[in-house]
Amino acid sequence: MTGRIVQVEALQQGWDLQGTAPRPLTASYNLSPYQWLALQRQPYLLEPAHWGLAPSWIKRLNEAPYTARAEQLLTNAMFKRPLARQRAVLPVDGVFDWISASGRRWPIYISSPEQTLMNIAALWEVYQLGDMRFLTCALISVPSNPFLSAFLTRMPALLDQQQTAQWLSTDTTDTDAIKLLQPWSGVLQTWQVTAEMNSPQFQGSDCIKPVGRVFKG
């Protein structure tokens, strides 16, 4: 399940950026778990967050879950409380995942051919580390839609603009919020990318450059 994201466009939209992080947020073509990303808890407002959901009892941030299965949100104590009132979205250009073929694992890039940004449903927690308090988050996954099921078993929980507004609203109950988390019904595209992006240090637009055929559906 998605372990890398591209977050470039959101940081170039001119939206307000509030909050502090150990280092300035920068656009990234290869953002991995336990790094800092831009989280959206309110419309047109971005805040820095650590990618890995960390309740107060977590001792090591690199053990915090960075994804949460939609099917477990109401039954897993770690996710049930933030589901009720601590919902957010991750605005991304696209995401990476890996497929197995010919005895190897190959990275693929997934994005929308119709819009420059996709919103992934997420949960957040505030974590205290010494004198520093900061946001932490995990993205939510759902079973793959018919198109991606040819490649993967799971995909990010993508939300359109109306669903995003409902997801972020404090008037939306947890049971109604769960109903929004469905396999994406819109068009997606995917293609294989260079294996160099397996390293989080590999950056730049070459991370998402197609290697071979582009699939749409």
From TrEMBL:
Pfam families: SRAP (PF02586). Belongs to the SOS response-associated peptidase family. InterPro entries: SRAP (IPR003738), SRAP-like (IPR036590). Its EC number is 3.4.-.-. Keywords: Covalent protein-DNA linkage, DNA damage, DNA-binding, Hydrolase, Lyase, Protease. This is Abasic site processing protein.
